[in-house]
From TrEMBL:
Superkingdom to which the source organism belongs: Eukaryota
Species name: Psophocarpus tetragonolobus
One Gene Ontology MF term: iron ion transmembrane transporter activity
Upper lineage: Eukaryota, Viridiplantae, Streptophyta, Embryophyta, Tracheophyta
One GO process term, biological-process aspect: intracellular manganese ion homeostasis
Cellular component GO terms, alphabetical: vacuolar membrane
UniProt family annotation: Belongs to the CCC1 family.
Record's function text: Vacuolar Fe(2+) uptake transporter.
Bilayer-crossing regions: 76-96, 139-161, 168-189, 201-220
UniProt KW keywords: Ion transport, Iron, Iron transport, Membrane, Transmembrane, Transmembrane helix, Transport, Vacuole
Protein name per UniProt: Vacuolar iron transporter
Amino acid sequence: MASLNDDKTNEISLYNVDIPIHAIDVEKKPSQEVEKRNIDYTQRAQWVRAAVLGANDGLVSVASLMMGVGAVKENVTVMLLAGFAGLIAGAFSMAIGEFVSVYTQYDIEIAQMKRDQERKIGGVGEEAQREKLPNPFQAALASALAFSVGAVIPLLAAAFIRNYKIRLAVVASVASLTLLLFGGIGAVLGKTPITKSCVRVLIGGWMAMTVTFGLTKLFACAGL
């Protein structure tokens, strides 16, 4: 009788084994969500970097150029023409530079994909890998548009102000406020500290405008 009961007990214990399947799913879900969030922010960082860089470059370049011209010329037309020329030249420069840079990255990743396929490394299909490759044409267009958006701001700020000193002050003030805005937008989109990003962008813009204005004024006073 005892052995029969033992057999039944063993038999029951074998069938009553609990497998915590839900615990496995619970453990996997948070890690999967974290991984997705990381991937999203990594992909987002690419276009955020290009957009913020282009807009900041356009704003600082044209504002500094206008401040430099304003250091030696009080005519508003001269300042606006210089700023407009800087907008056109800078937009094309940004587009070409971004196109060449991204196309180089594209070629490198294509070559790496071919090497991985030859060595049979990685389980992701070729089509899926190609979908993740950067687009040089889109990057060039985005950089040119971002530069133009930033560059047009100081032009609009100075277009309707005839007084020379007020015009320079307005260009510097509008550029400073816009730099703070761009720094904040980039920080929010990239999930980085807002204050640090704004201060870094603002100080860089101030340095560019101050040095351009000062050096141009110095050369003009020296008769160069």
